[in-house]
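Annex B. Sample input.
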Amino acid sequence: MQSSEVVILARDVDALLVPHGTEVRLPEGAFVTLTQSLGGAYTVVVNGNMLRIDGADADALGRQREVMTYETPADGSVNMTDLDRTLATIFDPEIPVSILDLGLIYKKEVHTDADDGFNTVYIEMTLTAPGCGMGPVLVEEVKRRVKRVPNVGSVDVELVFDPPWDRHMMTEEAQLQLGVY
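Annex B, continued. Sample output.
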């Protein structure tokens, strides 16, 4: 989505305040300005505040709910391809490129508890700049979405700045899309 659109919320909906990541409840009937819809998440502006609404709540905006389908591994493992597919649906609220294509994901590991088989996904990620205020919002979105992958029990996201991110960490497609090749 490129242009803004005013939408009336069809129901109460939870949203994350950008850049802090604080959860707020928006009431049914509120007017919001939809500024970005990428990867199944929506960026809206309400009373001068930018917020993110998850794709699972798209119906509140009069949109089709996002549904990702996964096959659940019978052995209790976590499918790494499903992790990548999920991370590819998370877009920076200000940049129309996924965090995976931006090269913000440095590490993905699955740790399985030997006693109970509980899977914890550990993700190490960065931001395009250390002072970027989108960190808390992106971390919360990563946690929420990755938790939906079958057999994921919990998600631990660590924000790191070493090595520092630079544009060469982006995929070629992302560089071309942003004109920074």
